[in-house]
Amino acid sequence: MSYKKEIFFIVGPTCTGKSKVAVELLKKHPFEIIYMDSSAVYKNLNIGTDKPSKEILEKYNHHMVDVVEPDETFNVNFYCKTVEAIMDRVISKGKIPLIVGGTMMYFNRLLQGINFLPERDTAEREFIRYLIDRYSLSAIHDCFKILDYDSHERINLNDSQRIERALEVYLLTGKPMSSFFTDSKSISDKYSSKIIFLIPQNRDIYQRKIEQRTSKIFSDGLIDEVSSLKKNYQINLQSQSMKSIGYRQTLEYLNGKMSKTQLYDECLIATRQLAKRQITWMKKFRADLQINIDHKSYVEIVECIETNLLLM
Length: 312
Hints:
Layout: E1 5-11, H1 18-26, E2 31-36, H2 54-59, E3 62-63, H3 76-92, E4 96-101, H4 104-112, H5 122-135, H6 137-147, H7 149-154, H8 160-173, H9 179-182, E5 191-199, H10 203-219, H11 222-232, H12 247-254, H13 260-282, E6 289-292, H14 298-309
Parallel strand pairs: 1-4, 1-5, 2-3, 2-4, 5-6
């Protein structure tokens, strides 16, 4: 009888200390961290993404951090295919993959199935942008009622990136994007997953953490970091990397679209909205262990994981 190899997930909304908990686990157990963060994949996006320090990254093996340049694109399909290969390598070394992050689209796709969508096509993208300019994003979204009803229901009316991708897949293959998910390969077919959720229960405590984090990224130099990115890369508000919270708003500030006070307020609001979306997503999944992080240190959270998931 063969047994599936174990993999672990630490999942939580922003500002819950996921990566710090993961590092504490690495100090005692044979894990290797695989980041599950759609912003941390970009090189030189450091302050706003709250990546681990250079010292931590050098001391402990982290995967899927600093993978692509800020002016390059990166998608969930590439992430899943890359992570599957990394997990196999980690396990072949006798270690355990520890997938850590809060990008719920990545988490959902890993659990629900890895599919193999066609690569992006520049010519089709230009045609799609022409259609959007000619008919509006809303009109294109409405077309999915006929072309791909599942995508119409799943994709938000204002999510231009996902609407463009769904139409691109349809134009390239003649098949709805949703059809690629029906026969997809879930990691549960190959691995035994242990899922840990870090949940803030006290709203006031959590809101203070978000405020502290927002203040810290500016005191640490986010504006200078984005200014340097703007100088050294061909980036704009349509760049995928600049859709990350903090970066989009700061780029707008540097373009003269808002004051510094407005910049802080916009980042705070966007972070709160992100946290709300992440928590809503997490309610759709079952965790093996759900930890109330209020009033707990990182070491205490690790002890809770060890006690409940037999990591002693």
